[in-house]
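Per reviewer request, we include the raw input and output of the structure prediction for the construct analysed in the revised manuscript.
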Amino acid sequence: MQDIIKLDSIDQYNQLYGLETLHPQIAVVDLSKATRVPTHFTINYGVYALFLKQTKCGDLRYGKQPYDYQEGTVTSFAPGQIVEVVMAEPTPPKSVGLLFHPDFIRGGSLGKEIKRYSFFSYASNEALHLSDEEKGIFQDCLAKIKSELGRPIDKHSKHLICKNIELLLDYCMRFYDRQFDTRSFVYRDILGKFEEQLDAYYQGNQPQISGLPTVKYFADKFHLSPNYFGDLIKKETGRTAQEYIQNKILSVAKEEIMRLDLTISEISYRLGFQQPQHLTRLFKKSVGCTPKEFRSY
């Protein structure tokens, strides 16, 4: 069985590729300058990382799914994610990137806002595809960070580096929004199939087997991460995938409640709730009354 490299430091990554470490908690890397090129390995990331792939030179796998990692794409990884890398040949890949340890941003504004950059949780085969102009912006942000790392450290260094990291992440958020727009014809098809899958979930006995439907359940159907799936649904509809699911649950619940031959407890079980009071709580919050009160109207 292949060993998993637990990547807990920047220096570990640099040693993997034979690169120099300039800072213990952050690095701008150019893998075309690697002096060591491993061909097949698996990394458990303990740092944040973004890479711009400039040519196709190998494959990435996140879990059982291949990453859509072609020329001109950006991939991003967060602490805790495990990625398998298979290089096509033992030559330095043309790829540039940024790695930074969570401790580097801890306590600052970026550390508090890092969860906002949902693309770090895209454990899917959907990478970020950049235009030539966007590639230039990405590389320019890296150049600014690298320039600051090359200067003598002073009281402004960390603040300026964090601001430039934040700028890069903000651009990536914009680029992902653009990608959702330009691929909307694909995502509309997913939205339609999502609605079909929601209907199918409640047409059988899946709720009694699996409980309430989850975003992950449907995201897995499309080989997407829950975050990516949720973001594209919200981009298309203005509502989150969870809101979509909740509305479906309420719709089915209303139909079931009007069946006088079923008790509220029986309906709760049929819908996938573990306890009847969970349905009552959701109904009260969303509809403004209890299931029993709704039945009596």
